[in-house]
Amino acid sequence: MKDINLYLIRHGQTEWNIKDQMQGSQNSPLTEEGILGAKVTGKYLKDIPFIQAYSSTQQRAMETRDYIINENVNVIPTAELPDLCEMDFGLWEGKHVPTLKKAFPEFNTYLTDPANFDATVNQGENYQQVLARMERALNTIIEKTKQDTGNILVVSHGTVLRILLCVLNGGDWRLHRDEAYFPRMLNTSISVVNYKQDENQPEGQFSVKFYNNIDHLANK
């Protein structure tokens, strides 16, 4: 039987986060607050015997992952998966969010109506594409895990983690942008997803144990 715990963490705060700029396929550096958040998260998880630490291929996620595992008492192998990357916002990358709200009616659809968001307007990704590759990322991680039990660290991004966790928690992806329905992922928040597969099951099951927890950041 497989019994794997996946610790899903959003990267630390970046300069574009605090400037309210669209940050998807492009990158901006972690702020001092972002680095501190990653280190505090690492200290909180330092006794978890992770067997592997994944991140997206984007710098902010890789750095957050490394700050976290550097606090751990164990030596943890690392790897990157492109499928864990943030949503590609195309022509909107790096643009100031209030400006986009005024200039593009479709931007408000992106914010409030995922099912009807047409990504051709910004030449980026739509939500169904994002969800499909995030689900593929989790399946890849499970397939690559040789042990039947253990803990795996996964550092990814706010938009993609939000839709994935909403769906894994039994929610409707079309409603995941509604803050009252499913909250946005906070920087260096911790969510834990369990994967179980019995010997007589052809496919295992993912279940969300908790999500978007920031209790560890209270006294940083």
Mind sketching the topology for me?
Layout: E1 2-10, H1 15-19, H2 32-44, E2 50-55, H3 59-70, E3 78-80, H4 97-103, H5 105-112, H6 127-144, E4 149-156, H7 158-168, E5 190-197, E6 205-213
Parallel strand pairs: 1-4, 2-3, 2-4
Antiparallel strand pairs: 1-5, 5-6
Question: Can you summarize this structure?
Answer:
This protein has 220 residues and is α/β, with parallel strands linked by helices. It is built from seven helices and six strands, in the order E-H-H-E-H-E-H-H-H-E-H-E-E.
The percent range for helix content is 25-40%
From the N-terminal CA to the C-terminal CA, the straight-line distance is 39 Å
Low-confidence stretches: none
Radius of gyration: 17 Å
* Major sheet strand order: 3-2-4-1-5-6
Number of self-contained structural domains: 1
Total DSSP E strands: 6
Q: Please describe the biggest sheet, giving its number of strands, its sense, and whether it closes into a barrel.
A: 6 strands, mixed
Structural class: alpha/beta
Assign the CATH topology: Rossmann fold
Any idea what the shape is? globular
**Total number of helical segments?**
7
Which architecture name does CATH use? 3-Layer(aba) Sandwich
The CATH superfamily bears the name: Phosphoglycerate mutase-like
Strand content: 15-25%
Compressed to H and E, one letter per element, the order equals EHHEHEHHHEHEE
CATH class label: Alpha Beta
Mean pLDDT: 96
